[in-house]
Design goal:
DNA-binding transcription factor activity, RNA polymerase II-specific (chains A, B); 2 strands; transcription (chains A, B); 65% helix; 5 helices; SRF-like; RNA polymerase II cis-regulatory region sequence-specific DNA binding (chains A, B); elongated; TF_MADSbox (chains A, B); DNA-binding; mainly alpha; nucleus (chains A, B); homodimer
Chain lengths: 167, 167
DNA sequence: TGTTCTATTATTAGGCC
DNA sequence: TGGCCTAATAATAGAAC
């Protein structure tokens, strides 16, 4: 969305909710239409809403009925494949996502920590950190100190190759 | 809609069409989900596609059947309200849109012409214009010339009020 | 063939009338 | 209330792997 990042939760304000519904249902149907045109698929959408007495049906009630007929003709086990209580299929999907989630989480931790480190270095304000953050920060700082140390060594070797210090 | 402006027509390239389908059907379902969450409406979507043996059904086949049941329970005249052959209703909608379309068209014409005028003035290349464009351009230029004339007069009157020219 | 990246277009929240 | 506007976020085409 826009102007502000959308929080995905029921919009309590009646006026805002209706405005959002109008815009978004229009947008949704446009997207469905584009999908059908671009990819030559058959689709229908039905939206039951409190603003109209009748559900919004796209692209036409006739087409919806055709698509539904095709759908109803499927064997029962296919029709119920997505039922909310079908645990094994849900679990499979969840597992598949968990891998990605874990990776994202690690990335985020690293980024967050690096951000905190720079904020602290700039402001000098270390006192508000949690114990866990402090520990992680110390680890990160030590890593960086080691890196810097290695870099100093490298540069010294480049500038004064194989030369012993005086005294 | 991106990297290039999308042309709304069947994507001939198999690979691109499939990629587009995957992205867009995912996007469509996300939008449907958001609509339901934000506005508390009940909706379902069914997409019949050549890549899977079964149609893609959202949010679940169970929910789809519930929404369809509600839809099927409507009286016949409502169910067929959107049928492609229902000319009077289509015509009404078309008329409603035509007003807006006409206004937009006029706006566009004006903008396009103004753009062409400036391009021509900058480049000096008038030779590639169509007859119609040329005529419109002449009209626009004459308008502008008149405007400039009026402005010159205005400024002269401001600088030399009620004064006759020498000789 | 699917996944990831990112430049660009498309959608839309909130404000205004 | 509904339509218009604009700033800002979201979706995604095309490329690379």
């Amino acid at each position: 969305m826009t102007k502000t990042k959308v929080i995905l939760a029921y919009i309590a304000n009646d006026r805002a909710r209706k405005a959002s519904f109008k815009k978004r249902s229009k947008g949704l149907i446009k997207k469905a239409d584009e999908l059908c045109t671009l990819c030559d698929v058959k689709a229908c959408a039905i939206i039951v809403n409190p603003y109209d007495n009748e559900p919004e049906v796209w692209p036409s009630n006739l087409r919806a009925q055709q698509v539904i007929s095709g759908f109803k003709r499927l064997p029962d086990h296919v029709q119920s494949r997505n039922k909310e209580d079908n645990q094994s299929i849900c679990q499979e999907r969840i597992s598949k996502k968990e891998g990605k989630l874990r990776k994202q989480y690690m990335d985020n931790q690293q980024k967050e920590l690096t951000k905190i480190m720079y904020m602290c270095l700039v402001s000098g304000a270390f006192q508000n950190l949690s114990l866990a953050s402090s520990k992680s920060l110390v680890f990160l700082l030590n890593q960086n100190i080691k890196d810097v140390g290695r870099r100093i060594e490298l540069l010294q070797n480049a500038m004064f190759p194989r030369q012993d210090n005086v005294e």
